[in-house]
Amino acid sequence: MHLFPRFYLKILFLIGLPLSPLLSSAAEQGVPVRVAPVERMSRGQQLSLPGEITTQRISQISSRVDAMVVEVKVEEGSYVEQGDVLIRLDDQLTRFDLERSIAALEEARAQLQESKRQRGEFSRLIGDKFIAKTSYEAAQSKVRISAAVVKRLQAERQRFQELLNRHVIKAPFSGVISEKLVEVGQWVKVGNSVLTLVDNHHLRVEVDVPQRYFSRLSTDTDVVIVPDALPAQKLTTKVSHIIPVANATSHYFPVHIDIDSESLTLAPGMTVRVKLLSGPDRQKPVLLVPRDALIKQPDQSDSVWLIKKQQDQLQAQAVEVTVGQVFDNLVEIVAGQIADGDRVVIRGNEILKPGQVVRIIP
Hints:
Shape: elongated
Distance between the termini: 20 Å
Order of helices and strands: HHEEEEEEEHHEEEEEEEEEEEEEEEEE
InterPro entries: Beta-barrel_RND_2, BSH_CzcB-like, RND_pump_MFP
Number of strands: 24
Pfam family, one: Beta-barrel_RND_2
Keywords: Coiled coil, Signal
Structural class: alpha+beta
GO molecular function: efflux transmembrane transporter activity
CATH architecture of the largest domain: Beta Barrel
Protein name: Efflux RND transporter periplasmic adaptor subunit
CATH topology of the largest domain: conserved putative lor/sdh protein from methanococcus maripaludis s2 fold
CATH class of the largest domain: Mainly Beta
Number of domains: 3
Radius of gyration: 42 Å
Low-confidence stretches: 1-27
Largest sheet: 9 strands, mixed
């Protein structure tokens, strides 16, 4: 309520105008305030944490043979499909070994065929008692030996074929070459890394969650991912993996959120904001008021101004409250004489007094 300065009061007194109608009109008009309803809604605790985009798969592609590099078919940044040839190694000596094993196998097969023919002849002769039984048994043993030789040489041929195949290094999955570690003419040994391949379609967001929130997380936890560089590409998903081993220094728990970026322009290394809606009771309705409705008292307690109707007038009533979780611009009220549907003052509440008449403005 506005007070008249003494100067104007004296003038009104001198000219004989009555004061009571003017003062009454000012009081009835009330202090202009803006209000918002108290609402009971289902909300969870929203944690906003920094995260980083990584990849679900990254491979240090290694050589499986000792050989010299004769061709590198990719560069850093090249996109490759699964099965594409990346590097060729010198395979000339292995080809010679393979050809020799193939020839030996053909020779052994011919020997096996001849042994079987002789066994057939001996089988007929022994029936007519033209040869001793031991001669037939010797022919039978020769067939078994020849068959074993064929089997051994088949395995040897397969071994050389596999060695030959290993001189061609192929992409184990589709992705982007992030590092090229060898050049033509370089000698590589078994286990040497030659390329780094990153899967740039199946990405993962890694975020560290404080230990006090760990028990509230599950693979059903809703997540909103907002890239710092591309805030318009907001992505809603769920937690994929929770690693139940905290960092020994920070005591934060790693959480992984797998995403598919085929329709997004995201890449490993980008930073994001991760909003997690945590807690098993996130669907439980709670009382919420706008944050602007709270008034901090000198004793650090919180209160709000409720709008109450008294004798056809709207009056402000101060109510002490206890706040809970904060959800963006809304605050949970866990205790206080406040109910769903009440109206609280969110503008003009700094100058109100108990019982003061107010008027609501848009």
